[in-house]
Amino acid sequence: MKAPPHLTLPAALTAAVLALSTLLPAAAADEPPAPDTGGTVTSSATTGNLVSEVKEVDGEIISTLTDKDTGEPATFDPERFGELPAEGALSGGAVMGQSFKTAEDAERITAGGAASGGEQPAGGAAAYSAWRPVGIQGLDVSTYQTSMNWTAEYQAGARFAYVKATEGNYYKSPAFNAQYSGSYQAGMIRGAYHFANPEVSSGAAQADYFIDNGGGWSADGRTLPGLLDMEKNPYGESCYNMTPAQLVSWIRDFSNRYKARTGRLPAIYTGAYWWNDCTGNSTAFNDHPMHLASYFISTPAVYPSGWSRYDIWQYSDTGPFVLPAGGDSNVFGGTQAQLTDLATNPYYKPLGGRAPSGAPAPAAPAPVAPSVPAGPYKDVSAANQFVREITWARDRKILTGWTDGTFRPLNSINRDAMAAAMYRLAGSPAYTAPATSEFTDVKPGQQFYKEIHWAESRGLLTGWKDGTFRATTPIARDATAALLYRAAGSPRFTAPSVSPFTDVSTDQRFYKEMTWLKASGISTGWTDGSFRSLNPTARDAMAAFLHRFDARF
Fold this sequence. Notes:
It is built from 14 helices and 13 strands. With 553 residues, it is α/β, with parallel strands linked by helices.
């Protein structure tokens, strides 16, 4: 068996990579945190003596795995990291990239993470890597990540996640439900993965076990295909005591059952050397999306037989994601449209492979649509649902566009731009900004310096306990509701005892302000009954909110 090489980046490339590394922002919220009350639990499940929860703490989505009796985070023995789970023993089993993990990795991974996020540990690049290749970023987690701040991961740049659900036919991750839900609530596209153990049962049996315990798929645009983790056996002979033909047959058995039950093929996670040795260079599965494991290189050069490029590349197990210590980090190799296609299209064509059988033939060219009358911006036509409100915001100079003639209606609106919009809506009143900034990260001369301090002086937008304002952080929909409620003078309003939104509880932060927003006719939420309080507020929706607010107040 040929082991995968551990390559070292040339010194010049290493220097360039480190120079281009981005600083990871601290976890953000829309308002200064209140005294610690433990947050609002949005979901909870108990498995044996372990409790997994998703909490909203000061606007941040955090998943935890704790001991039911003590309330403390679950702890794992690093010497048992990656061992075959045994009845009654606390173990997380094997994880993606298990064969790459060292004893030092075991110490770091079994520490479980920290919900605070954002801060990098001491120890330099040996403990943590800030480098990331170009592309759409993501991460993967397992039971060992007992505390995950999903909001911090999203703000650090992660847009998708894979979460361990099962292993073999004997292990279900007690952290899965919380991690899967938490990543979704933070705005990520997420999927489940199954660590295969072909020695213990058939491929079809393990596909059933996986699907029955969270590994299914739906075309909702937020769910990645189930991921089959095929790698070196961590518990015995590398190829699971199977010949290449037997192993190929086992993978086909899993794949066929997964497709029969979900309507699509699973993705496959593997490394080039193990795959080529243990499957005999099989090219039979290149219609499955490829999730490549390959560390210590600037770009992959060797692929499993059948694929010419990756769909997702697991490029590091030491960061930049899974804060603060750093863990499995991934990048998608295509565009945002292609990532959306991966999450929605059962006939997705792998970037380096072939389309699955049964894929519909390319559609005939569509007839030329009649021209749509021009709108106020290049990217806002007269048919846009918010064209009237966006035109009003432009004419009133409350929300303006870019020099290239675009409005970018689906972009999130940041806190500094929100301060400027409210200042203009108020008629740009006379105001002298302080010579010394109220915030450590807002400097005199900075764009919107005056408007930020005006909004702070009116109590519309405040900062964090650490003295920051976080000007370029997007403002969430719940915080937008709170801002407009304050701008209206905090009118007397009794919130309903039953929430009008399916995803907003009566004890949730800003519940009163969100229901006031609906009662005032400023926002009605989505047609499915949700409000999506933690979603960033888009520029087109903000134009509509301000237009309705101005008409009423």
